[in-house]
Design goal:
By secondary structure, the chain is an alpha/beta fold. Helix content is 34%, strand content 19%. It folds into three domains: 33-129, Fumarate Reductase Iron-sulfur Protein, Chain B, domain 2; 144-239 and 384-449, 3-Layer(bba) Sandwich (FAD/NAD(P)-binding domain); 241-381, FAD/NAD(P)-binding domain (3-Layer(bba) Sandwich). The radius of gyration is 23 Å and the shape is globular.
Length: 451
């Protein structure tokens, strides 16, 4: 990304170093030993626990919490890692308030769930700090698997395949492994370079070779992988950015929220990452909230999120919306962009049209609103770009613009599996990508060891 792409309206040095450090400190500070014991004691250890059913990776939540309560955080971590080898990051970034904690019996009865995410972080942090590896590699099978993408799905697949004794090569287009865990989530959700620490922990099992700077369609073709490896797993995520479909959206200062977050995550000096004075974010998901809150924390004076539907339709959880409000972000609903205003080629404002539901369809009302802005972020979702994927050899079947897979992650091509955001049914959640990568790896293993 070109340096200084986000120099919209304010020079660097808006805040003091101490303010930056405070603004981007850990969103949920870790529980200490005593706090973890007290919190774990709140769990009812339900039989057929609803929290476990709500977890996409099916972690045995009552068991791991009981292990914490009996002073066994290492055993607790193993229970977590048995199902989710990226349990440390998921504890930090999962929307637990809409998954396991939402259905916690304590939440239903009292409105205050057991803090499952923080307890999961406590246990996994203890194990990772001691570098406790629970899964020695099986006897090498001599089989080789190529994994495209070192994000959550790819890492989970690679680890499970390595456990079974297969040799795994991960081909990652970016300079660092981690995918959205490294490049796509708010900095205050993953501090102290945790994403890379987790990559190191996952690959410590051995048998996993990560090659960075290797892009599908540029440096190699899918047909090459099919020919040279015994199996292939595709976990490249989403590379495209949905357009605003608004007049003038190519003006300077109109940028992709994911790229903004990526640059922020890689910045060594936040004071050197300028941001607009008046920022407008278009979208209603987690990425929109992450971009908006971080703009405010960088020193933007006014930040507004505009979403085309109502609050109840937003993909961002109620917790994320409250977090935005607590940081001074204004969220406005029933607005869609129609025109970006520019002066001298740079954005100066954005015109939006009020919307309303007409039956089941969203329609503009014809009434408009103009907001002054010197920076506009697009956060209305990403799309899968199949050009590199289908640029060589037999084409892979797509469904609704993403890779079509069966219940085990198999694609239409022999020897090729897929998982994560790139597949039809991908949920834009780290924990779901981990589950899909893990399950596809088990399917690959069965295929490689049959007969």
């Amino acid at each position: 990304m070109p340096e200084g792409q986000f120099k919209a309206g304010i020079a660097g040095g808006r805040l003091s170093p101490d303010q930056y450090a405070e603004n981007f400190s850990d969103l949920h500070p870790p529980l200490d030993h005593h706090e973890a014991l007290v919190e774990s004691d709140r769990c009812y250890f339900c039989y057929d626990a609803p929290c476990m059913n709500a977890c996409p990776t099916s972690i045995d939540i009552p068991l791991f919490i009981r292990q914490i309560s009996t002073g066994n955080p290492i055993g607790s971590a193993k229970t977590i890692f048995d199902q989710n080898i990226l349990g440390g990051m998921c504890a930090r970034v999962c929307p637990t308030e809409t998954l396991c904690e939402e259905v916690c019996v304590r939440e239903v009865a009292e409105g205050k769930p057991v803090q499952i995410g923080r307890l999961q972080r406590y246990a996994t942090d203890v194990a990772m700090a001691e570098n406790r590896q629970f899964y020695p590699r099986a006897t090498p099978t001599g089989k080789t698997v190529a994994v495209v993408g070192a994000g959550p799905a790819g890492l989970a697949a690679a680890h499970r395949l390595a456990r079974h004794g297969h040799d795994v090569t991960i081909l990652e287009a970016r300079p660092k492994a981690g995918g959205l865990n490294e490049y796509g989530i708010a900095a205050y959700k993953s501090v102290d370079n945790f994403a890379q620490a987790e990559v190191d922990y996952v690959t410590a099992i051995g048998g996993i070779d990560i090659q960075n700077g290797k892009a599908l369609g540029r440096d190699y073709q899918l047909s090459d992988l099919i020919r040279n490896y015994d199996a292939v797993f595709l976990g490249m995520g989403l590379g495209g950015v949905n357009a605003l479909r608004a007049e003038g959206e190519d003006a300077g200062g109109v940028t992709n929220a994911v790229e903004f977050i990526s640059e922020l995550r890689q910045a060594s000096d936040l004071s050197g990452l300028p941001v607009g004075r008046r920022v407008v974010v278009i979208g209603g998901g987690m990425t929109a909230i992450d971009a908006a809150v971080q703009s405010k924390l960088l020193g933007a004076e006014e930040v507004t999120v505009c979403y085309r539907r109502g609050q109840e339709h937003m993909n961002a959880s109620e917790f994320e919306q409250d977090l935005a409000a607590a940081n001074g972000v204004s969220i406005r609903h029933w607005l869609q962009p129609t025109r970006v205003l520019a002066e001298g080629g740079k954005v100066s404002g954005i015109e939006l049209e009020y919307t309303a539901l007409q039956g089941d369809k969203l329609a503009g009302t014809g009434e408009t609103l103009t907001l002054v802005a010197d920076q506009v972020f697009k956060a209305i979702g990403q799309s899968f770009v199949p050009a590199a994927l289908n640029g060589s050899g037999a084409s892979i079947d797509l469904q609704a613009g993403r890779i079509k897979v069966d219940s085990e992650g198999r694609t239409s091509l022999a020897k090729v599996w897929a998982g994560g955001d790139c597949i039809f049914g991908g949920e834009d959640l780290t924990v779901s990508a981990v589950a899909q990568g893990r399950d596809a790896a088990e399917s690959i293993n069965r295929s490689l060891t049959q007969g």
